[in-house]
Amino acid sequence: MTGCQFAKLIAQKRERIVAATFPGLASDIDVSRLFETGTDTHLPAIAVFTGIRTEAALIEQLSVLARAPRWRITREHPAGLI
What we know:
mainly alpha
């Protein structure tokens, strides 16, 4: 199943997903709560960070998450992309 097929499938019924929009800097607690709800309800969880518009904002959000024990930020280098 492709990502587009998956998106089409879950978009058919909004009650099949757990989603949240974060317009500003999101706390690790709020982001964790979203994914815990998805796990508890056996539904896909989607977080949309609409406040991230720059690389600096992305770094700031990742820094917030990295300070929490649940989240680990790593640098990946997929083969063929470097």
